[in-house]
Amino acid sequence: MSETPIIQIRDLTKTYRAGDVDVHALRGVNLDVAKGEFIAVVGSSGSGKSTLFNVLGGLTPPTSGSVHIGGKDLSHMTNAERTKLRKDTVGFVFQKYNLLPTLTAEDNIKIVKYIGGHATSFDDSFEEVLRLLGIVDRMKHKPRALSGGQQQRVAIARAVANQPAILLADEPTGNLDSQNSAAVLNLLKDLNERLGQTILMITHDPEAAAYAHRRVHMRDGQMTPGAV
Ligand SMILES: Nc1ncnc2c1ncn2[C@@H]1O[C@H](COP(=O)(O)OP(=O)(O)OP(=O)(O)O)[C@@H](O)[C@H]1O
What is the ipTM of this complex? Predict the structure, then answer.
């Protein structure tokens, strides 16, 4: 029995207006992502990868085409609906960890829950996530007292704190040495395999892409499939 894909993208276009010039960042992208997949999005600089993530994450509206996440159509959402999508359905991890320097690791993670109006203490299932990420004993530290790899793990914990339907990771190992990169990639793999987290990850690194089940290529705003 085949389930409806958690992400369905059809004929998606995004055109930016830069002065008098139209920049066609996405030119008809089609993609289905099954629940529980881990997909690497690869492609040269300027091919449209970040634009695709910005549309999927509700940060920017598409120009045409459709995007369904968990059955909801993003292309016709109001700004308020897109904000809700960002809060409830999508988790983001970036190359820069974007942690608040004055807050402890614990509060950096919990802030998502405060904003979301949810519980202010970690429940048992989230303690499991923290254990998986290997940061239980780092919760009282501020970001400057953590290594880059540890900061990225805190950022990942924050991204999955609300149990998002999809996790979007944009070059999550771009700032890390090879040892920390491997640790972060193994954690993403664990989140995927043990908790069934659906993950899309942009990367320039073929070794990072090899952690995914499937690799898709962006080129000039279009997508071509590719095997890992
Ligand atoms: N806000 C914007 N206004 C105008 N043009 C933009 C904007 N954002 C992106 N672009 C253009 O859209 C195209 C796709 O950019 P995008 O950032 O999506 O590519 P990318 O594949 O993520 O690149 P990189 O790997 O360098 O991050 C590029 O030509 C870029 O210059």
Answer: 0.96
